[in-house]
Specification:
By secondary structure, the chain is α+β, with helices and mostly antiparallel strands. The chain is about 10% helix and about 25% strand. The protein has helices at about 75-80, 105-110; strands at about 30, 40-45, 55-60, 60-70, 90-95, 115-125, 125-130. The strands form 3 sheets. A 3-stranded antiparallel beta sheet has the order 2-6-5. It has a two-stranded antiparallel sheet with strand order 1-7. The longest helix has 8 residues, at about 75-80. Mean pLDDT is about 75; it is low at about 1-30.
């Protein structure tokens, strides 16, 4: 379990983690950059239960890697992949075999019993720190983040 590697957000609820140890992690807000942090991983499956990673679904359109197991298709990919392309906690599964979709659809595609191999598009999160200073205590920031409490 790599939950110790997962950051939590300082924007209430955007990416909050109820995982063990989450309250010990450095605060930060993570966003997914488009092109510069994406890569394709080819996963070869030995069977329908050979994926080797657990997921967390956020909102309706984010499927994030929660943990990577020590065995399975992901562990095999990680053992020989190019530098900087190991699948890790917080990586976003953006597409499977070139098809993007809802998290449950992507999971279903990866768990297809007939599938022997899949090309998975991964987006790596990038930390962005934003400092906002108020002139007076209690002053509104004047923005609405649109987040649910």
């Amino acid at each position: 379990d790599c939950s110790k590697e997962l950051p939590r957000t300082n924007a209430a609820g955007l990416l909050s983690y109820p995982f063990p140890g989450a309250d010990e992690l450095e605060e930060g807000k993570y966003v997914f950059a488009e092109l510069d942090t994406s890569f394709a991983a080819t996963l070869d499956f030995l069977g329908p239960d050979d994926l080797g990673m657990a997921f967390e679904k956020f909102d309706d359109d984010l499927l994030l890697v929660r943990s990577v197991k020590g065995s399975g298709a992901v562990a095999r990919w990680n053992s020989f992949c190019p530098e900087g392309q190991k699948i890790a906690c917080l990586d976003r599964i953006a597409a499977v075999n070139g098809v993007s979709g809802m998290p449950l659809d992507l999971l279903s595609m990866m768990h297809d019993e007939l599938l022997k191999s899949a090309q998975v598009t991964i987006q790596r999160p990038v930390m962005k720190n934003i400092d906002i200073k108020r002139k007076e205590k209690g002053e509104s920031l004047g923005i609405d983040l649109g987040l649910n409490p």
